[in-house]
Design goal:
Helix content is about 30%, strand content about 15%. It is an alpha/beta fold.
């Protein structure tokens, strides 16, 4: 039996980004219409920079790739500088030749949040599902905006953000935690786990305790990322500080 999630450890965050970017490039060459699930936050910035570099070098053509982002803040328009759409445009979409019509994000200004979540689920289904889902992880174990809770939503849903999650996103709002929206829209755990392959990125010492629990701890809604143990093709790509609490046999 192959243990899931598998663990791959690299010397530093730059090496993690290079390795995953190569995997993405290979996947796109094998299937130019690849459907990618994408994260936001500080951790994937190095990945997006490396993917952009490979595109500029003529090694990746994104023109037929389809993307779905994991989540979006609720209650702000898509052109708000703190929105994840703005984040993706700045750090990735605006630097490669991806077709804007093939980039999918939740609408944080939708009047009917439930209808918007249903629309997003249908769009993922209509695209044939996500082939490769890339994830980050919060220090409290959340993936997407699936926060620790007594129970987790399976499908795309509206969520109330934990204080630590709002705090970690303050940089997008001029460093003002009080300006970070209190709610968001997020893919659910079931939607994430239906991706055919999943890669979770974790870099830096603050992620080490959480990573150790994802790999060795029980599956629990108190640590949403622990559900990756149930996925048949999941890998954790870590730098050495994030892997510091893992033993060689983990």
């Amino acid at each position: 039996m192959i243990r899931s999630p598998r663990v791959a450890v690299f010397a530093d965050a730059a090496a993690v980004a290079r390795s995953l970017a190569r995997r993405v490039a290979d996947a796109i060459r094998a299937k130019p219409t690849l459907v990618l699930g994408l994260p936001t936050g500080r951790t994937p910035l190095a990945l997006y920079a490396e993917l952009s570099r490979l595109h500029e070098a003529g090694e990746i053509d994104f023109s037929r790739v389809t993307t779905f982002n994991l989540d979006e803040f609720y209650g702000i328009p898509s052109d708000h500088p703190g929105s994840y759409r703005s984040f993706m445009r700045t750090h990735f979409f605006g630097r490669v030749n991806i077709d804007p019509a093939r980039t999918h994000l939740l609408d944080g200004s939708a009047a009917d949040a439930a209808a918007e979540c249903e629309r997003y689920e249908r769009a993922i289904e209509d695209a044939g599902g996500i082939a490769l889902q890339i994830l980050g992880i919060g220090t409290n174990g959340h993936i997407g905006f699936n926060e620790p809770a007594p129970e987790l939503e399976a499908r795309t849903h509206r969520v109330t953000l934990k204080p630590e999650t709002r705090r970690s996103n303050a940089a997008l709002f001029g460093g003002r935690e009080e300006d970070v929206p209190r709610e968001a829209l997020s893919m659910g755990m079931g939607t994430i786990l239906q991706a055919r392959a999943v890669v979770l990125l974790a870099t830096g010492a603050p992620k080490a305790a959480c990573v150790e629990r994802v790999v060795n701890g029980p599956i629990t809604t108190a640590l949403p990322a622990s559900f990756l143990q149930l996925h048949p093709d999941a890998v954790l790509m870590l730098d050495e500080p994030a892997a510091a609490r893992l033993t060689p046999n983990s």
